[in-house]
Amino acid sequence: MQQRPLGRTGHNVSAIGLGTWQLGADWGAVSEADAEAVLAASIDHGVTLFDTADVYGDGRSETIIGRFLAARSGHGVTVATKMGRRLAQEPENYTPENFRAWTDRSRRNLGVDTLDLVQLHCPPTAVITADETYDALDALVADGTIAAYGVSVETCAQALAAIARPHVTNVQIIVNPFRLKPLDEVLPAAAAAGVAIFARVPLASGMLSGKYTAQTTFAANDHRTYNRHGEAFDRGETFSGVDFEVGLAAVAELTEALPEGVPLPAATLAWIAGLEGVTSVIPGARNVSQAQKNADAAALLDEGVDLSGFDAAVRRVYDERLRAAIHPQW
Q1: For the chain, what is the domain count?
Q2: Is 56 noted as a catalytic residue in this protein?
Q3: CB distance 140 to 149 below 8 Å
Q4: Which residues form the NADP-dependent oxidoreductase domain (predicted)?
Q5: CB contact at 8 A, 49 and 17
Q6: Residue 6 contacts residue 196 (beta carbons within 8 Å)
Q7: What pLDDT does 286 receive?
Q8: DSSP string spanning 279-310?
Q9: Cut 0.85: pTM above it
Q10: Is 13 within the bounds of a domain?
């Protein structure tokens, strides 16, 4: 699998990584054995980036990853975690003291002295634009608590503000066929600044798997049930903010534009990973089959599969069905 520079760190990460929200909570139950099998399958297929957060299962995701990697010396995996959602997302809670408490907890969960990469977890804009935020993060780098830091964001404006900071390693932002606004300014700005981009929610909460129908239902504790309209957190985190019925219609059109023999999820992941400025795409997986299919999408890049027709369809469908509702919001 392609390995790409992680910002200015001197390290590389895989073009397809693994998001591990599913291994914590909010997607229905995943046993610890199944979670470890997902991690193993991902590594075996060349994945060298695990993305997690301290609130995924209240630390369950971090803890499972930590135990798993401790048993695999020389694993070569970069673990990117996130902090900032253990308290209300209000600017006054983003203090040096809380940063230290949150990172100390993540170090315990992951079983490491120094965290590879810590990202602020979609904080308020006021936090992203404050000098004090980066002073506190720089102090954690200086004393060895963290090796590098980045910011996960909701909006393109937030991404551009973070990219402008000299020590930001990466920005994590939603990029997929339902969310094209980052292509306008964010990806070019990140490439020019040497900032890595992690494309999150790449399959639009599974909508771009092509498996859902109007009759599909989800568990009560699955955010695709309880957050469709932003009841619990930003609506854009669920189906990328796209109405479920509209998303189904868009998926049907995109499916018609697929190269022969290429499934929609693989085409989508390869298309995102092929965008200039994207460092790694971080789909989630709840089982080994999903993990294998996610990682195998990288082979489309290596084999030079022609996705130009799919690219044209993505842009047309976005303009016709999604732009008016999505572009102004994020």
Answers
A1: 1
A2: yes
A3: yes
A4: 15-299
A5: yes
A6: yes
A7: 87
A8: -EE--B-SSHHHHHHHHHTHHHHHHT---HHH
A9: yes
A10: yes
Q: What share of the chain is helix, strand, coil (3-state, %, to 5)?
A: 45, 15, 40
Helices (H), the chain: 32-44, 60-70, 96-110, 125-128, 131-142, 156-163, 186-193, 223-226, 244-256, 264-273, 288-296, 298-303, 308-317, 323-326
CA separation for the pair 177, 55 (Å, rounded)? 27
pLDDT of residue 25: 60
Backbone angles phi, psi at 77, to 5 degrees: -95, 135
In a 3-state reduction of DSSP, which class is residue 147? Answer: coil
Domain limits for position 92: 3-207+263-300
Low-confidence ranges of the chain (pLDDT < 50): none
What counts of helices (H) and strands (E) characterise the chain? 14, 10
CA distances from 204 to 155, 161, 224, 265, 288 (A): 16, 24, 10, 10, 20
Question: What DSSP character marks residue 84?
Answer: S
Q: How far apart are the two ends of the chain, measured CA to CA in Å?
A: 31
Q: Which amino acid is at 253?
A: E
Q: Which two tokens stand for residue 313?
A: 């369809």
Residue 218 within any structural domain of the chain: no
Query: DSSP secondary-structure letter at 259?
Result: P
In this predicted structure, what is the pLDDT of residue 221?
85
Q: What is the rounded average pLDDT for all residues in the chain?
A: 95
Give the count of beta carbons closer than 10 Å to the beta carbon of residue 284: 23
- Amino acid sitting at position 185: E
Residue 238 is given by DSSP the state S
Which two three-digit tokens encode residue 16?
């397809």
Q: Record the tokens describing residue 73, joined without a space.
A: 């010396």
Rounded Cα gap, residues 310 and 330, in angstroms: 23
CATH number at residue 13: 3.20.20.100
**Residue found by looking up tokens 């999408």 in the block:** 297
Q: What Å distances lie between residue 251 and 209, 229, 317, 325, CA to CA?
A: 9, 20, 9, 16
Identified catalytic residue from 56, 149, 212, 318: 56
Q: What is the pLDDT of residue 28?
A: 58
DSSP lists the bridge partners of residue 170 as 150, 196
